[in-house]
From TrEMBL:
The lineage of its organism: Bacteria, Bacillati, Actinomycetota, Actinomycetes, Micromonosporales. This is CSD domain-containing protein. Residues 1-44 are annotated as: Disordered. It comes from Phytohabitans aurantiacus. Residues 1-21 have a biased composition (Pro residues).
Length: 98
């Protein structure tokens, strides 16, 4: 019997540069962060892990405690109301992350 002469498997080379767009797209209407101003609304404050501050407006009456981690589905705030420092957004859905 003759020894097998199969060629070695092909090797992949490293990419020359990173992809132009991320492979996992993030939703543009969701933010996650820690509550900095809580209460029963309608205004709340939160800050994301990267330090971005948001002023949230919601009429749902959700009770949030300072320090809670929340996931917010939002849209731009169309009311002329001041809810504190940060980017003003209207919270459509607030989920407390356990």
């Amino acid at each position: 019997m003759e020894p097998s002469t199969t060629p070695p498997p092909p090797t992949s080379s490293a990419p020359s540069k990173p992809p132009a767009t991320p492979s996992d797209q993030r939703p543009k209407d969701i933010v996650v962060g820690r509550v900095t101003r809580g209460g029963e609304g309608p205004c709340y404050g939160m800050v994301t892990d990267d330090g971005r501050e948001y002023a949230l407006y919601s009429t749902a009456g959700t009770k949030l405690a300072e320090g809670n981690t929340v996931k917010i589905r939002f849209e731009p705030l169309r009311l002329k109301i001041y809810c504190g420092p940060g980017e003003h957004i209207s919270a459509l859905e607030i989920t407390v992350v356990k």
